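S.,

Sequence below, as promised.
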Amino acid sequence: MPKFLRIPLTAFAFFGFFSFGCIVGWLALPLLAFWPGTPEAKRRRMDNAICGVYRGFMQFLHLVRLVGYTRPELPPDFPRSGGYVVIANHPSLIDTLILMGLSPGLASVVKPHWYSSWMLRVLMRYAGHIPGTDRSAALSPSAEGTLDMSQETASDGDMPAVVDRMVAHLQSGRPLVIFPEASRSWERKMRRFRRGAVEAAVRAGVPIVPAFISVNPPMLMKHQPWYEVPERRGMYRVEFFPVIETAGRDLDPRQLNRELRAAYEVRFVEMLRERDASALAAAPVAQLPQT
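The prediction came back faster than expected:
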């Protein structure tokens, strides 16, 4: 699709997502909540509906060729129930949408103004998102209402109350999605990993599911306007590292966080090489002067 067509289509896609999210929150989810059934059955219905919204949006982006994306098969060691924490790097704006569509029931920590927004507050509450505080971005995602922190000086220990909420959420048997970078990565460098996600998982004794998101060419990066679309559509891929079990283990969250950051750094460098190779292959070949 030509670049000049993808710009207005991108605007339409995001407008449609927020509008549809508002409709789902104010109309569809309340109906599902009042539909007869046990509390567990109602919860499953709402989780499946919310997950379907995220999956549907990504399928739409793929069908209209704004992005290339196929939802990955979950690995055999992916938790099928109970609390767990999915962590991932954060290369673009739509990473949250990708991860929320992996499995029903996933939630995150959200900005206070989104949690109380007239447009999305009902969806936020039915989805089980955790309200954060103005400075709790060191713990959570940054896209579509999730927390973002542009300041790199925040301390991991700034928000113990939010970590406590995360632990309680996980212990209740509900999973979370967290981006330890807190904000989107730089184009060619990852941000440092904040340890809130690992600390919450260790304290709750739940599995950590490390996922790596790659996109080639880069798009929807930090400080990049939505209308600055690449010449080629971004191809997204989600890969999984082995699940880390924390229950019954004496783990140091700081050390585990450093080890995870090192593993992500290796894969991030590989992604940069893939991007560079693709950009070189796609570049027009200079014609040799005729003799």
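Residues 3-280 form one domain.

Coffee later?
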